[in-house]
């Protein structure tokens, strides 16, 4: 019965990941962004096209690699300390507890990553905000005789640019999916380290690592503005989307409460004894 339940849980996990990833795949392959107009005097969309500092593929590869390595290392360390869960059996084969916990944490992370990318990209296609380099790749030619353009907001126009794919991408500015994924990954890993990576070493080492992870995500977002890929508000919205998804995924899906709260810095009985009130001397 336990074997059937374990195998069923794995199958359900895979199906759930597929249900989260399939709409994202269909959106990216078949979706058409909203065709938004522009104001002639809008300088924010007249910046030149620049190469990006961090590509989408490089960000995804780095994010997943760091999370996988960190989770496996933490679970191995916990297992050696005797803090891991018991071993499990799958199809008659022994599955170490640290392997199962790593699978569970990485699976939850992957599900959350798919959800935040779906929400971010849905916003891109629905809103259709123009990227800062839109004018450079589209080179729009407004229809001067169209009554739709009379109020100064150009809706009826033709792009003179020849790269249709680049023009379509230039309509996907809000929110920043790079920033959303970077912040989601950073916060998920920061929370995981806070809850599970416990040691009696330096009081600042763990928090220093967490700060470095956060600053990496911050740099990703700032690079999107510097590279003219997004407006600052796109990056802010991406950070917010990633933050909300990370908190909901970690708290309500991974459910860290069962691991207990991180211990205080005073872990020995001697420290507690030293803090007991001394008996008052009779006078």
From TrEMBL:
GO terms for cellular component: plasma membrane. Keywords: Membrane, Transmembrane, Transmembrane helix. It is found in: Membrane. SMART domains: acidPPc (SM00014). GO terms for molecular function: phosphatidate phosphatase activity. The chain crosses the membrane at residues 12-31, 57-77, 204-223, 235-254. It is a multi-pass membrane protein. Residues 106-250 form the Phosphatidic acid phosphatase type 2/haloperoxidase domain. SUPFAM superfamilies: Acid phosphatase/Vanadium-dependent haloperoxidase. InterPro entries: PAP-like (IPR043216), PAP2/HPO (IPR000326), PAP2/HPO_sf (IPR036938). The keyword Transmembrane helix applies. One of its GO terms (biological process) is signal transduction. Its main location: membrane. Pfam families: PAP2 (PF01569). Belongs to the PA-phosphatase related phosphoesterase family. This is Phosphatidate phosphatase. It comes from Galleria mellonella. The lineage of its organism: Eukaryota, Metazoa, Ecdysozoa, Arthropoda, Hexapoda.
């Amino acid at each position: 019965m336990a074997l059937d339940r374990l195998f069923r849980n794995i199958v359900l996990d895979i199906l759930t990941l597929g249900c989260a990833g399939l709409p994202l795949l269909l959106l990216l392959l078949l979706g058409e962004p909203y065709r938004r107009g522009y104001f002639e005097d809008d300088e924010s969309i007249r910046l030149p096209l620049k190469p990006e500092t961090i590509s989408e593929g490089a960000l995804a590869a780095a994010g997943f690699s760091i999370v996988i390595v960190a989770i496996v290392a933490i679970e191995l360390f916990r297992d050696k300390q005797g803090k891991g869960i018991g071993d499990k059996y799958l199809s008659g084969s022994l599955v170490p507890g640290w392997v199962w916990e790593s699978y569970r944490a990485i699976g939850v992370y992957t599900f959350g990553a798919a959800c935040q990318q779906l929400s971010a990209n849905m916003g891109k296609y629905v809103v259709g905000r123009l990227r800062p380099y839109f004018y450079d790749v589209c080179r729009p030619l407004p229809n001067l005789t169209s009554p739709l353009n009379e109020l100064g907001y150009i809706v009826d126009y033709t792009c003179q640019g020849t790269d249709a794919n680049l023009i379509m991408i230039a309509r996907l500015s809000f929110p920043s999916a790079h920033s959303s994924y970077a912040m989601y990954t950073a916060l998920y890993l920061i929370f995981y380290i806070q809850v599970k990576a416990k040691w009696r070493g330096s009081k600042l080492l763990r928090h220093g690592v967490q700060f470095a992870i956060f600053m990496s995500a911050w740099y990703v977002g700032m690079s999107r503005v510097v590279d003219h890929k997004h407006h600052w508000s796109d990056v802010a919205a991406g950070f917010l989307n990633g933050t909300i998804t990370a908190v909901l995924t970690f708290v309500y899906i991974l459910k860290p409460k069962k691991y207990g709260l991180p211990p205080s810095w005073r872990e020995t009985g001697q420290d507690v004894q030293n803090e007991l009130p001394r008996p008052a001397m009779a006078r």
